[in-house]
Amino acid sequence: MSAASPVVPSDTTGLAPSAPPEPSAAAEAKRRLSSPWASLAAIVIAILWTVPTAGLLITSFRPVGDINSSGWWKFFLDPNVTLDNYRAVFTGDDVGLSTYLVNSIVITLPAVLIPIALATMAAYAFAWMKFPGRNALFVAVFALQIVPIQVTMIPLLSLYVDPPFGLPQLAGANAPGGGFYTIWLSHAMFALPLAIFLLHNFMREIPGELVESARVDGAGHVQIFTRIMLPLMVPAIAAFGIFQFLWVWNDLLVALVFGGGSLNISPMTVRLAELSGTRDQAWHLLSAGAFVSLIIPLIVFLALQRYFVRGLLAGSVKG
Amino acid sequence: MRSIHLRRALATGAVLVLGAGLAACGGDDGGGETNTAGGTSPGEGKAECEALTEFGDLSGKTVSVYTSIVAPEDQPHIDSYKLFEECTGATVNYEGSKEFEAQLVVRARSGNPPDIAYIPQPGLLANLVNDTDAVVEAPSTVADNVDEFFGEDWKSYGSVDGTFYAAPLGANVKSFVWYSPKMFADNGWEIPETWDDMMTLSEEIAATGIKPWCAGIGSGEATGWPATDWLEDTLLRDGGAEVYDQWVNHEIPFDDPAVVEALDRVGSILKNPDMVNGGYGDVKSIVETTFQDGGLPILEGKCALHRQASFYAANWGEAKADVQIAEDGDVFAFYLPPTNDENGSPVLGGGEFAAAFSDRPEVQAFQTYLSSDVWANEKAKATPDGGWVSANTGLDVANLTSPIDQLSAEILQDPEAVFRFDGSDMMPGAVGAGSFWKEMTAWIGGKSTEDALADIESSWP
């Protein structure tokens, strides 16, 4: 993602004022990194990285005949601009695009909030509460990450359709909420192992003295969690939130399998997959469709990228 | 103590499982008979609803349909259900997905199947019946309709091990060669009646400086399938229906001498640098060209002939907005001529079948409606842009709007026609959706006929 590149200079300039007369390691690194050759390399990489996306953007504005007959770079020789592709994407179906867009949001928000809520609490317990079998349990949760989604599909869907212990049925013709519950729960399940692991690592970094002193002042687990941990964890939570948001937003498999295929609860990705028609005869619409679905993640990413870089470092680097 | 508890739990579990199994069997026993909801049908007294009134009052009931047909081709299907909804009071929920084939199996296995699924391959139907036990036998009303309106060959494709499950719906004809009527008229070329005439014509076209044939077999992970159709079409012509059936059922080896001969015949076009690849380049460009683009050079006059199914009509429209598909228009198709007189007029094609996963009265009523001549004609009228045809003999050809559909329907309804289903759709998945595609791609790329066929033979499970 080229969008992340502006962050790097702002970080390094942030470190610059603290440089003592004797050149620090950071200043030394900055001096080396900001050589003209490094800048040139960065620019070349950024351009190479952006070219396919630019090609996609240009293609989305070209007429059908041009898309089918020549590559997007021919656009500069013979510029024909049309909005037909976007018009077809927005109005070309019996279920309007706005329905899918709303569905995507309705699916994504709970599918991000549920794992965050559960994982912060679980991570706190694993990091700061002592109970028997804690390490074994943590390893078990962490190990769940290696279970591929595909393996779980049929058993999980069978459980939703025919739940044990008289629990209410979540999938099938009479599913409550039109079937959204199965998608939310599935996304939450698949996200939890990584979420707990990342947030746990971050929480272990918080100095023990902080927790100790809070305990001396009479704070219980709930107070320590809400007053100390949560405010300190905002960057890590935001970073995981972006990860999970992008994953859920771009997900096709979970929505297809657990949504039961009903168009009323299908997200944008399902619409995009169907966009090219039964025999792929309308594939020229895909570039326009891709850009429509790209807008919201782009907004979210640009708005939260500050946390993204900070949070990545927070979760992964120890000590 | 603990072990006794465990045993008891196991025994209870076993009883539950047995009970569930018995209940499922009980449902299956009802197959073949028709169920009724009772009450007076809303369609009582209307002539066009006659066949549906016996299912009673279905108001408020819902039938879910799951297909691989997505927008914009789905709207004519949804429109064609209106008469059924008026006649019975039931509602039909249509749902199309391009991931249909994988999703249907997942849903059937996990106990969440749709009521009706449009299955495009007999092989998939057999898998569902054998592996999931979720498909319900067709009621007698559907079987009667199919006996009346379809040939025995079509009924057998909807049956597994002698039990009839799924009635045929739409069909497509694959034995077509697309050409430009204008180009033919300008040059004084005639539509060939025999394979030899076609080859003579191809050489005549080649002499004018353009490559006569264009082709593209690229199709993502399914790259190679258009070439399998070529082989099936020529084998059906050279060897006749009997050899073709033996080959599909693996009663003769995949690399039987008859198959080698048929593939060499294909090679005389597809691997002949004088014949291909008009508008694209040399023989190898066939692999790189997607099947959607394969025939498009005909519109620019860079190619004269393109063998592809009737559904390719949609691709012309996408490539050029005002293209006319008619005998006197921009493009049209002729029947791929036979290679000899002994085997009649073989037709290679495909189609979908309506399989049911429930025997509720509204589902059976809908199955009955779909297998009738009433639906075939309703569907034809609901498809103003064309692109749909059925082998239903009750279908009035005049109800079809596009000339290519009319030609397809005439070919399908011709009593002389020997219809055979696309073989790769009936072979085991490892071959029909695997090695057959891959080896045909390698064959275009330069692999010898014998090697390619022998490698497919060795991959047969």
Describe the model.
Chain A has 319 residues and is mainly alpha-helical. Chain A folds into 2 domains: 88 residues, no CATH class; 226 residues, MetI-like (MetI-like fold, Orthogonal Bundle). Helices cover 69% and strands 0% of the residues of chain A. Chain A has 14 helices and no strands. Chain A is flat. By secondary structure, chain B is an alpha/beta fold. Helices cover 44% and strands 12% of the residues of chain B. Chain B contains 19 helices and 11 strands. In chain B, the strands form 3 sheets. In chain B, strands 1, 2, 3, 6, 10 and 11 form a 6-stranded mixed sheet that branches. Chains A and B meet through helix 4, helix 8 and helix 13 of A and strand 1, helix 2, strand 2, helix 4 and helix 14 of B.
Describe the protein's topology.
The complex is a heterodimer of chains A (319) and B (461).
Chain A: H1 7-15, H2 25-33, H3 36-60, H4 64-69, H5 84-91, H6 97-128, H7 134-143, H8 149-161, H9 180-205, H10 208-216, H11 221-249, H12 253-258, H13 268-274, H14 285-316
Chain B: H1 2-29, E1 62-67, H2 74-80, H3 82-88, E2 91-96, H4 100-109, E3 116-119, H5 122-132, H6 140-149, H7 152-157, E4 159-160, E5 163-164, E6 167-173, E7 176-179, H8 181-187, H9 195-207, H10 225-238, H11 240-248, H12 257-270, H13 285-288, E8 306-307, H14 313-319, E9 332-335, E10 345-356, H15 361-370, H16 373-381, H17 403-413, E11 417-421, H18 429-444, H19 449-459
Parallel strand pairs in B: 1-2, 1-3, 10-11
Antiparallel strand pairs in B: 3-10, 4-5, 6-10, 7-8, 7-9
Helix pairs in contact in B: 2-16, 4-5, 10-11, 10-12, 18-19
Short description:
Chain A has about 325 residues and is mostly helical. Chain A is about 70% helix and about 0% strand.
Order of helices and strands of chain A: HHHHHHHHHHHHHH
Task: Quote the beta fraction of chain A.
Answer: under 5%
Query: How many angstroms does the end-to-end distance of chain B come to?
Result: 49 Å
Q: What is the highest CATH level, the class of the largest domain in chain B? A: Alpha Beta
Number of strands of chain B: 11
CATH homologous superfamily assignment of the largest domain in chain A: MetI-like
Query: CATH class of the largest domain in chain A, please?
Result: Mainly Alpha
